[in-house]
Amino acid sequence: MKRYVFNPTALVMLVGGMMIPPNDGREVDETLLPPELRDLPPQADPPSETTPESAAREALAKLLAGSVPALREQIPTFSDETLAALAALEGEAGNPRKTLLAAIAEAQLDRARLRAEAGKIDGTGDGTGAGTGDGGKDSKVGVSSENDPPPAG
Description:
Layout: E1 2-7, E2 13-15, E3 18-20, E4 24-29, H1 35-38, H2 52-64, H3 68-74, H4 80-92, H5 98-122
Antiparallel strand pairs: 1-4, 2-3
C-alpha cells in the first residue's frame, strides 16, 4: 500500500528512495518508509491550487481530447501562443497525432508567411522576418574606427 508523504521543509527530502522537493509530496510504498514515518497518521493530499498555467493546460488538454477534424476546423481561431502550446502538449502525448501536428505546423507557417509578406509590402521589414541585421551603419561587424588599434598580424 502506498502512503502520501508531504515535505513541509525548505530542503529536499529523501523517503523510500524517492526525492520529495520542498513543499511537495509523493506517494511512497509503506514498506519503504522509515520507522519514524510509519507511525504517523496518513497525510491528506494538499489541496490542489489552480494556477492560471494549470487551468490553461487543462483547457488545452480538453481541446486535444477532441477529434482531429474538429480541431482542424478550430485552428484558424487560435492565437499563435495557443497553437504553440497545443503542439507542445500533443507532442508530449504518448502517441501524438501526426496529422494534428502537421495541421498546426501548416497554420503556423501560413501565419509566418503572411507576416513576412505584410512586412515586405508596408516597408517595415525585409520580408525575411529576421530583423534588421543587414550590416547597416549601426552594425559593428567589419567596421573599424580611428581609435581602434591596428590588427595584429
